[in-house]
UniProtKB/TrEMBL annotation:
Zn(2+) binds at residues 80, 84, 183. Belongs to the peptidase M50B family. Pfam families: CBS, Peptidase_M50. It is found in: Cell membrane. SUPFAM superfamilies: CBS-domain pair. This is Zinc metalloprotease. The active site is at residue 81. GO terms for cellular component: plasma membrane. It is a multi-pass membrane protein. One of its GO terms (molecular function) is metal ion binding. Its cofactor is Zn(2+).
Length: 384
């Protein structure tokens, strides 16, 4: 995913951190820290236990504890997504990565929507793991007095364990709402897909998700007297997130259904205009203007050696282009596909690598090229 930094690997799955994650942690820390007194009383009431707030409310501790609780919540999100990924691997699905984002996490897999019998345990694994993690933290609240005799330190530990536990139980309940892109929406689709085609099941589940999004939006805008104040930004953002997620999921499955049996050989553009590695870069820019194509394969002696795109050209200054050749800026590691490859695979590669075109090779010879535009055109024609 663009804008993500790889921070490690667990069980062979790359763990990524999106830049938005770094923005939301300080926000959560501030919100938690600014309400530390009321939250301490709430946690004490929920667990029926007294909390010594001597350390909790002193100096910078509210903001430090806010940061710890925020990190604890996102650790719970990570464990949630890891559970999805491990169940998927057991079912034979290869996972690309786990990415932590502003509003949670995403476990990315190599294929589209799995079979219902596979999707159901995958979807349930995450929320159930959040529930177990939350209950474990809640259990530690009652164990804490045995860990340390100091009441003030007990208060800090009870606050952290109690808050993280409650948040993860809320995460469990929220994710089971039957609304895409949350796990409850996937559970609903898996149940529906046992009785109808996958695309229809997805469309119904996505519409249910949009209904919940509209409900969240109305409550966020107008509030609930005595419970939720009007213009709640958090609920409004959740409404947008759910609505867009439901729309994207529905569109993705529609693409899979429409393009399921189409190969790149059936829709590739041919003949292919290629450029030599020694061509002046300014001439390539002129070709882009003339042809309206924003990328060309680069060949030497009829052998593909690279790709040159508008993005490659834009990485150079206009003054330097006069003296540069294609080989100075071209991408040398080119993704290629055979004519028998599916269009779904091509689209997945384009999305994962953020590229706009893939050369089609047969016996090491370029026989065509497939672009995102080609795929969109074929999809529109398939709708007829």
């Amino acid at each position: 995913m663009d804008g993500s930094l790889r921070i490690g690997r667990l069980f062979g799955i790359p763990i990524m951190l999106h830049w938005t994650f770094l923005l939301i942690i300080p926000v959560f820390a501030f919100l938690i820290g600014s309400q530390i007194g009321a939250t301490t009383d709430l946690i004490g009431g929920l667990f029926g236990i007294g909390i010594d707030s001597t350390i909790i409310s002193g100096g910078y501790m509210p903001w430090i504890l806010g940061t710890i609780v925020a990190l604890g919540l996102f650790f719970g999100v990570f464990v949630h997504e890891l559970a999805h990924s491990l169940v998927a691997r057991v079912k034979g699905i290869r996972m690309q990565s786990i990415t932590l984002l502003m509003f949670g996490g995403v476990a990315q897999m190599d294929e589209g929507a799995p079979e219902p019998r596979t999707e159901l345990p995958m979807a349930l694994a995450g929320p159930l793991t959040s529930l177990v993690f939350g209950l474990a933290c809640c259990g530690l609240v009652y164990v804490t007095p045995a860990l340390t005799p100091a009441p003030a330190i007990q208060g800090v530990l009870i606050f952290i364990f109690g808050y993280v536990g409650v948040l993860n139980i809320i995460l469990f309940a929220f994710n089971l709402i039957p609304a895409f892109p949350m796990d409850g929406g996937r559970v609903l689709r898996a149940a529906l897909a046992t009785r109808m085609p996958l695309d229809r099941a997805t469309r119904i589940a996505a519409n249910v998700g949009k209904g919940f999004a509209i409900l969240f939006g109305i409550v966020g805008l107008f509030g609930i007297p005595g419970y939720i104040a009007p213009f709640d930004p958090f609920l409004i953002l959740i409404a947008l997130f759910v609505y867009l997620g439901a729309s994207l999921e529905s569109s993705a499955v529609q693409y899979n259904v429409l393009l399921r049996d189409v190969t790149v050989g059936e829709m590739m553009s041919t003949p292919v205009v290629s450029v030599p590695a020694s061509m002046q870069l300014v001439k390539v820019v002129d070709m882009m203007y003339a042809s309206k194509h924003l990328g060309f394969p680069v060949t030497e002696r009829d052998t593909l050696v690279g790709m040159v795109t508008l993005a490659d050209v834009n990485r150079t200054s206009p003054i330097d282009r006069e003296a540069m050749q294609v080989k100075d800026v071209m991408t040398r590691e080119v993704v290629t596909l055979p004519p028998t490859a599916s269009v779904i695979d091509a689209l997945r590669i384009m999305s994962a690598r953020n590229i706009g075109r893939i050369p089609i090779l047969q016996e090491d010879r370029i026989v065509g090229i497939v672009t995102r535009t080609d795929i969109l055109k074929v999809t529109e024609l398939k709708k007829i």
